[in-house]
What does this fold into?
Amino acid sequence: KEALEPVMTRPMSKHIHKQPAEWEPHSAVWSAWPSDGELWLENLEPARQEVAALYKAVADLNPATGTPRGESLKILACGEEAVTSAQAALHGTGAEIIPATFGDIWLRDTAPIFVKADGQLSAACFKFNGWGGKYVLEGDEDVASFVASRSGIVSVSYDWILEGGSIDVDGVGTALTTRQCLLNANRNPNLSQFDIEQRLTQSLGIEKLIWLGDGLANDHTDGHIDNIVRFVSPGVVACMEPEGADDPNRDALLAIIADLKAGTDVTGRKLEIVTIPSPGRVEDADGELIPASFMNFYVGNTTVVVPTYGTKADDRAVEQIAKLFSTRRTVGLPANYVITGGGSFHCITQQQPAV
It folds into this structure.
């Protein structure tokens, strides 16, 4: 496994710095290959097939030349077997397979969040405690510094816990989050709502934070926003509406819509709300409810990839999300095995903005 290199640090610039919106151009996307058989058990190989399909869609190979016209893939793999497996599965995509030590593949939460100031990038590295101590895996706490060092981008380290999936930004100063996650005592018990808002302004340039309540049932992230609401352009958000009276998240989704209707962005304008159907009840092989969500899509340079779960709402959700990103192609890909690990496509990706 590749040794971790020391991370450069510097004080934050006094110039305006912001986390770019996901629909802005990327130079690469960072992700990871399912590597630990003890974690994934019988779902390891099927999960690998699903993430390989995601990576190929994001790379978007030109059929005439075989070269990527989407994004460069930076894929971490832990252990010789995983490296070999990833190289074989992603051959021809241009993916860089990077040997690394990590617990699992959820780089949205463990990798750095890239911010831009004066045309330069820096990597904001936050502390990570396994989603409030639920899944503390060896190596995950070092992923942010490793990715920052490997990318060659100057990093800034912050001494408080923040997961990338817990916020969603419009790129011009407004962000969404949930109280269930950011105010949870299992993350930063000594920080108030005001403290967190101040730290997000300092670290990511967030000037207006829209607070929602609870996320999806059985979501071990304690309500990550990327499972329930996403900015699709400044002032415009997409969220899910209940799929039938028996939707297990019916009350939470209706509360989210109500809160969004009362929300305003950093300019003071009311949010425009676009609703997408919920997958409804999705269960694992043991009959347990899982936090399936169409909101966990990834916006690549040329392609938007929407997770699907074999539900009657799959096609409608993909079609409606496609209308929100008319300059990109939108594809729906199965994520039934990836989500057995606790998340979906957005959860395993972290974009590196272009400069």
